[in-house]
Amino acid sequence: MSAIVANTFTSTATHSITIRRAVADDAVSILRMIGELAKYQGVADRVNASAEDLRRDGFGPEPKFEALIAERHGAPVGLAMFQTYYSSWETASVLQITDLFVDEAVRGTGVGFKLAHEVAQIAHQRGCAGLQLNMVHANPSRVSLDRIGFVHQDDLLHYRLDAQALRKFVESER
């Protein structure tokens, strides 16, 4: 586990922001930010999660994700959700940021950078081979990823079976 408990910094907008690990009581705030991120990206209809799902999946006996919360004046204004996967090519773990969101009121102040930086520190502390982040094409924040040093991998295509397609595939015969 990372030593990150609460890290405070002052953004360019001179608002004191605290970054801390999410806890089960943050599930409603996490769900709100996931919904706002999906809306911002034009895919709000894809969110099927509930706060109870997040409590179970992130804070139960076998957490499926981890999260950091950015707060301003005690109110959540940013979220970084991430998980570990194993890279067979690098024979090492990689952290993947699955959701990175910053409230509109504090966008452009460094909050997103700081959240990503904290996840990068965790990845480094754990000896991970890298940090990965997926983003929809329409997200204008893609430019920020270039400045941080993320490299778009043109040779990879992201494919997914949704629940209905997964069921259909499982039930099919060759």
Shape verdict = globular
Distance, first to last CA = 44 Å
As a whole number of angstroms, the C-alpha radius of gyration is 17 Å
| The named CATH superfamily | Gcn5-related N-acetyltransferase (GNAT)
Assigned CATH class = Alpha Beta
Number of strands: 6
In which range does the helix fraction lie?
25-40%
CATH topology name, in short, is Aminopeptidase
Structural category: alpha+beta
CATH architecture: 3-Layer(aba) Sandwich
| Low-pLDDT stretches | none
What is the topology, as strand order, of the major beta sheet? 1-2-3-4-5-6
Biggest sheet statistics? 6 strands, mixed
Strand content: 25-35%
Number of DSSP helical runs: 5
Average residue-wise pLDDT: 86
How would you briefly describe this protein structure?
By secondary structure, the protein is of the alpha+beta class.
Protein model, in words:
- It is a single chain.
- This protein is an alpha+beta fold.
- The chain has a single domain, classed as Aminopeptidase.
- Helices cover 31% and strands 26% of the residues.
- It has five helices and six strands; from the N terminus they run E-E-H-H-E-E-E-H-E-H-H.
- It has a six-stranded mixed sheet.
- Helix 1 packs across helix 2.
- The longest helix has 15 residues.
- The chain starts with 5 loop residues before the first strand and ends with a helix.
Element layout with pairings:
Layout: E1 6-10, E2 16-21, H1 27-40, H2 51-59, E3 66-72, E4 75-87, E5 92-102, H3 111-125, E6 130-133, H4 142-148, H5 163-171
Parallel strand pairs: 5-6
Antiparallel strand pairs: 1-2, 2-3, 3-4, 4-5
Helix pairs in contact: 1-2
